[in-house]
Amino acid sequence: MELVYLWVEDYKNIKKQGFNFSPRFECTFYDKYETDGNGKEKLKNNCKLIIQESKKSLKLFFGTDLSITALVGKNGSGKTSLLTLLVGGIFQNTNNWREIRNLILVYKNENIFYSYSFSSYDKKKECEKINFDANIRIEHYPLYKSSFFNDDMILNYHVFMDFTIGQIDLWNDGNQKNFKEYYALEPSRNYFSKGPGCTSKIEPTSFAANMKANILYLYKYLDASFIKKWKLPHFNKLVYYGIRRMGGPTRDYYKEEIIGQKILGMDFSNCTDYESVKIIITEFFNDNREINFNDIKEEDLSVISILFLFADIEFEDNEGMNFFSMSAGQKQLISYFGIIIRIITEKLDADKTLTLIIDEIETSLHPQWQKEFLKLLIELLSHMKAECKNIQLILAGHSPFVVSDLPKENIIFLEDSKQVNGIEKKQTFGANIHTLLSDSFFVEGGLMGEFAKNKISKIMNFLNGKNKFIDIPINQIKPTIEIIGEDFLREKLLKLYNLQFPISKEEKIKQLKEELKRLEHD
Predict the structure, then answer these.
(1) pTM
(2) What is the per-residue pLDDT for 127?
(3) 186 secondary structure, DSSP code
(4) I need a surface site. Which of 158, 188, 270, 455 has the fewest CB within 10 A?
(5) In this structure, are residues 275 and 226 in contact, taking their beta carbons and an 8 Å threshold?
(6) Helix H or strand E encompassing 118
(7) Is residue 160 within 8 Å of 357, Cβ to Cβ?
(8) Using H for helix, E for strand and C for coil, what is the string for 394-463?
(9) Which residues partner with 17 through β-bridges?
(10) How far apart are the C-alpha atoms of 205 and 198, rounded to whole Å?
(11) Taking a C-beta distance cutoff of 8 angstroms, is the pair 1, 65 a contact?
(12) What phi and psi values does residue 505 have, to the nearest 5 degrees?
């Protein structure tokens, strides 16, 4: 089940827009409207959707059964709204509390297109009919109230990995249980941790616990050759350092998860409170402070993150390298990959498709990791692909390094909540990041920091005679010019400066002598 197309009449700032998610097809929805009995505009029945194979798509560009699409645009362009519409509109929109007006989703499975539609006109009525191209075999399903799973939709397992800062719109409806059952909400167990005057998306203790649990999946299922190739630490054991310090409310919240569980041979079935949990953990690790990865069974993997909530346990290798000493970006990256491995091994089989949606993957990643991310992810997915039918990857963010790994046909360019025609864009594959920043991410006014740009402009206008006054001290103008990193611009301004403030004969002789000494020394 590959997502091919999404069209919506009205949602937030997205109005009457369609978005092509598959580079293999070009979809066009011809929407027509009529006026209802209340004088309001209404989408007509039998509007036509044309689906054609794209002649520009490079088949098998990323290997067999792997599709990749990226959403790019500056802040406010509609990336998160589009993802929220896609994910929330299907799974989290009971009685249309999101106020979506006419949502159409088109998926493809083998040689059949499946249409899932939702109309907001009448909640008791099936969605409006759509007239598809006669050459396309398509089966049509309504999304009643737009939150009820269809048997076919379950075959398309969606994972939304949201790493935006402070974006809680998708999770903020109190319906966490259904999301956790059908989704992989990551990387926290608890999404409503309250702090001083605010509500955060994640709770720090559970974030750390889930991070470690996900990384354990990576080291259990990924070949050692990948660990070496990716230059990751060779963690091979868990080391216990003591009971984790937690506040009373946090302990009480999580003790309900561990009571009744069996983890690494520890039986918490008879526990009644936090103190009894603490005693079992302490006595167990008093006898054995280290646990080799090979001794961790598959049934432990699904519940071990609960243990990480209560016990301070570190990954270590034989040289003493541990998880704590890794950079935040390294921890985050291998945790992402661990999430993917966990979902594929736990949730998927050969008949299911994985739709992996990642919002702002570049958050906390060093540019070097951003540069390597897509390559590593493709290697990982190719390695794990035998466990599921096919994989669709949808990325949203601001990293030009990710965009440079993709042909422009695989990118949805967004501007003012509309898909910009990719034909008008320069080719992105293999392009340098300077070109991508200005073209793909709609960066205006050049690629220089605005503070530097403003200061340099003042100097240039003063030296050109456009401005008679300048708020920079005269004796600071030349030193400022000399630290400009762009060679051509620096030399140009120095020439202008020397015309405005010619140096004396004595100063020129002094400079020549200093230059001569430097050349003799070299």
Answers:
(1) 0.74
(2) 42
(3) B
(4) 270
(5) no
(6) strand 112-118
(7) yes
(8) EEEECCHHHHCCCCHHHEEEEECCEEECHHHCCCCCCCCHHHHHHHCCCCCCCCCCHHHHHHHHHHHHHH
(9) 8
(10) 17
(11) no
(12) -60, -40
